[in-house]
Amino acid sequence: MLNSDPIKKNSPSLSFEIVYAGRSRELQIRAVRSGDLSDFDGQIHESANEYLLVGKPNAANANAVRMHLPWLKPKPLGLNLSAGVGDRLGLATSGHARAFTKYGKGILPIFVQQSAREMERLFRTPQEVMDDATFGLIESSWMNQFGSDADHLKTIADIDTALAAGFTMFTLDPGDSVAVVPPNFDGNLNHLPWGELEDTEESMILRYKDKQFNIGEISISMNNEEIRRAAYKYSSAVACVVSMYRHLMQTATHEVEVEIAIDETSEVTTMGEHIFIATELKRLGVKWISFAPRYIDGFEKGIEFKGNLGELSVNLKGHFAIAEALGPYKLSIHSGSDKFDIYSMAHDICGGLVHLKTSGTSYLEALSICAQFAPDLFREIYQMSVDSYAKARSSYQVSANLKNAPSAATLSDTELIGLITSDDTRQILHVGYGDALTLRDSSGNFALLAALQMCLIENKEDYDQAMEAHIGKHLALFG
Ligand SMILES: [Zn+2]
């Protein structure tokens, strides 16, 4: 498949395109002088009036492309309205870019986005995530600003590999350090890391005691017990963010920005807790552009919002009032895939100071192509996902019941697509990617992943069209 309008370099001496030749993806670069191709790795073919380099989409070529086409390096997006799209398979970016071009007016995209957990499960590196997006952006002739999100980072090592790969947004997730307040909590806070917090119990209490936080239309005060519970629960998490943040700022050699995410903790974040976390992080010098609390329940993976929309509206208004008063920073909506009922409401409440994060829904679009064009492969992926669901579900907000997951062997080819559209099996497919995509064949290769990627390459236009329409449906409502 040839692009009608290959990306040109600023100087017109080089033009770049991604070409699908049979079952492989190639980088092709045309030049008038062979010397202009010296930064790239591949075979050079000479014809009457040009030189054509045919190379692999590898890390060296991705890096050289970004040097020659600097707009393909991600940049911080600041407080602008933004939406992130994840890509587990390395082939989604061209479809994502088409969606933003057609439906994403006024929304800055994050094309490069994957969580540390997903990368670990898929044996993928931040560099591979970055490079796959680079090639997808050449394919779609993308020439505008975009961001990159190293999502749900929990360790210093996660930060270092993402920095080295050129990521610009770092979502710091201190969720493992959030403590659960015991039922017999007596208010004792002696064990908190006061040294790291550069604080004492007395001065912490004084910051909140007898204070009325009048924020927009809401007014919040915390009694002694509430203050102590918030400190018990979040102080170690605050210290964790501070140490990750300081490391990031000391190490980064390019411009970076930070999101704080506590959406994957076990309890809903109260308004008082949001105030506590933001106040403490600010006191310790942390700056961030977006914050993901755990909103009220209803944010399950890959399906429509299941909670009460009126309650969500009140919840978003409260969190946004705090974000505006103590920042401003954007509210970040994680698990944002397929929540069509909430996008315009979230945009309106936050006045555009909001970030939407989606990921798994793009994988499900890939599976819909697989179900249409490679039904037996889809059956295998589905079965692996069913078998691994009991284990895979533990790290996600899902409610799918295995009783509602029929055996794929009993379904005709045309019925398979129903497994992607029905909520239970959609969630099972959504969270079951880890075991399915990393199943090794006798040579140690990821057999199902490779077969799925082949299927997408062979049906690339259908895949791009499906992605454009599906992500476009999100963007049209969100923008
Ligand atoms: Zn999240």
Automatic annotation (TrEMBL):
It comes from freshwater metagenome. One of its GO terms (molecular function) is isomerase activity. Pfam families: UxaE. InterPro entries: UxaE (IPR032586). This is Unannotated protein.
